[in-house]
Each structure stands twice: as C-alpha cells, then as structure tokens.
Amino acid sequence: MLTFIGLGLYDEQSITVEGRNALRAADRVYAEFYTSRLIGTTVADLESAHDIEIEVRDRAGVEQHPEDMLSAAESEDVAFLTAGDTMISTTHVDLRLRAHDRGIETRVIHGVTAQTAASSLTGLQNYRFGKATTLPFPYAHGADGLPASVTETIDANREDGLHTVVYLDIKIGHERAEEDEYMTADVGADLLADAYPDLVGVVIARAGSPDPLLAAGTMTELAERDFGEPLHLLVVPGECHPLEADALVELADADEAELETV
Question: 188 and 122, same structural domain?
C-alpha cells in the first residue's frame, strides 16, 4: 500500500486526524519538500510529534528513481508526505500511476491547500477563481520580463471576471542559489508591477499559521511593503461581488475605490 498524505499548510499539527492516524501506522515514511514545505516546523519536529522516521527525497529521488519506495510498498504500508495536498499543485500523480502499474494499492489523504486557503482567508468565492499561475524567479525562466504563462493567465482570467492565484516561486537546493529561496510577496509584486503597476493584488502570508497576514493594494504599493516571513502568495481579484469586495475591504484593508476599477 502506498498512501499519499497531505500535511497541510504550516506545522506538525496541520495534518488531518485521518492523515495523522495513517502516518503513525505506516511501516515506512518518505517525504519531499522541494515543491513546498511547512515553514512552522522541521523534519525532526514532525518525526518527534508523530513518533516516526522520515526519509526526505529530492526531486530525482521521487520523479526519476522511486523504485525503492515502490518496492517497499509492494509488501509494506508506505506513506508519502508533502506539504499541502499531495495531488493539488504539488501533484505526484505520476508516482501513483507507477504504483498502479506494479499492482500496488494506493490511497490519497488530503490536506489543506494554499488554493483553498486563498479563498477562505480573503472571502473571495472559490468558484470564481480561474486558472492559477506560478511566478518564477527571473533566473529560473531565463527570459526578460514576465513569462507569457503568467501574463496570459492573468489577462484571460480578468477578461472573464475571474480571480487568479499567483503562486510565488520556491527554489530548494537550486544550483543558482546559495540557500533555499522563497519568493516574497513584495518581490512578486515588484515583478508584476512592470506590466501591471496599478493592478490590485492581495497578499496572503503564512496561511495556516496562528497569525496569517492579508494585505491589499496596487502592485506598485505592495512592492514597497514588508510582509514578514514566508510562505507568501498573491491573489489578483477579478470582478468582485459586493460581498467579496466588502470582505477585501474588511479583511485585507483594500481600497474600495481601487476595487471598483478592477
């Protein structure tokens, strides 16, 4: 059995009860934190809290060389962990399909994701979000300006009146970075301001923590602010229902007049 378990958004307590029970019952536990990580805890704290040992795998160990994990799952209960939900954004469906090819039973235990937190914290309705996009570090995409994948997604969603989640790049163990890098919302807003200086954005910082932060403003304004420790993401509101606009004004200190121009 191979069980995919989402750890949620912040620390060792963010896992669901179902996930916790499956994790503690597993014979072997693997994890990856190169797509995202739990800022409020460490691997050692996870191990201590759940009385387990975790083998952390890098990208190659998960996506190119998962044979030992799959072999173990043929005869043992194996848990595979990621932050958030293992099948949303940090998708590992390829690993699941490889397991099925070998006749290994699989199971998915979901965790809270940044996508759902973006809706819950801002008051923007989940069904009014369009396609999400990821804003990479400039050195990671190797081109001048914003990638077309970002601008085309934002423009298409805005044309349809839909909100956009903009995930901010994370680089774990990247050869160009001396240490792990997490794009902060001010950096993301600064990059977006080149094309959208007056576009309203909403910063969500440390979703899932005891003190998440929300802040709205134009990209130019947000680029000048400090939003504290990661993880951060940005939401670009589309056409807002009056209740959504009220929520952004009350919860994120949005300027009502700016929202009316969205």
Answer: yes
